[in-house]
């Protein structure tokens, strides 16, 4: 077979019309072959594929996406202020996992912040125009209207962490309940008896589950879980500082703290040092996420590792499957998937 250069008669890139002329078929037939339609005979398909190879034809992906009502783009939506996104390692690890999973595809990734009412209104208009094929939604609060909006618009979506036990959208989460238990069981095994918890925002289901795991571990050890030893933070360093100061006022004799994130643990550590309390001699400290912060603290922080980058990859894989499944959302409700990835404890000097 003679191999021709990848230039059309016009001297530019080969066109769909030139492929059709070479194969002796109509333009629509070439389009059907390129888009994988079964309504083409084997002989015709072979002729078109030969013409494509001879001419070096490269399909116009933008035009194909438009014809298929596709944008070849997905959005990573963060309903938080930009400052929090860049301050917390959780988000950068998640983004790394998403990018890794998309690297072998033709999909483009859009990063959209929706931390204010104005940004949410703009996002709703953007999504209503169907400018993306799907949405990854991270850091979802229990009363967040975005997941319901996505369902109404029938835009494929996957969220990081369920909003409740009755989640209806596909989701990927870590075992927050098991992670909370691991942290407290470890502290108990080190002889700690007055264990406080700096929780995350309790309108986040994952934070609630960490509290549940904390309480379960105490009860199984024969200890009552004292509500005065639980103070919610907001996953920020300053939130960890405020919560630690409040806990010390409530129970000055506490000997251990389980913080619901490494960032909050860093804030708690500052307060302990300011009060002249040594870690771990006076107060043992355990965080959550096993981020770079945990390794760089003094002393290095024991932390519950959740596979954040793996969560990003799993979310993206699920979303690509949702996008490829062209059935109406109503017919897919029974096979929605809730993926839960395991957590593990990484022990360092802080405990």
TrEMBL record:
SUPFAM superfamilies: lambda repressor-like DNA-binding domains, Periplasmic binding protein-like I
Cross-referenced InterPro entries: HTH_LacI, LacI/GalR-like_sensor, Lambda_DNA-bd_dom_sf, Peripla_BP_I
Record keyword Metal-binding present: no
Keywords: DNA-binding, Transcription, Transcription regulation
CDD domains: HTH_LacI, PBP1_LacI_sugar_binding-like
Domain HTH lacI-type, first and last residues per copy: 14-68
Keyword match rRNA processing: no
GO molecular function terms listed in the Swiss-Prot or TrEMBL record: DNA-binding transcription factor activity; transcription cis-regulatory region binding
Protein name per its UniProtKB record: LacI family transcriptional regulator
A Pfam family hit: Peripla_BP_3
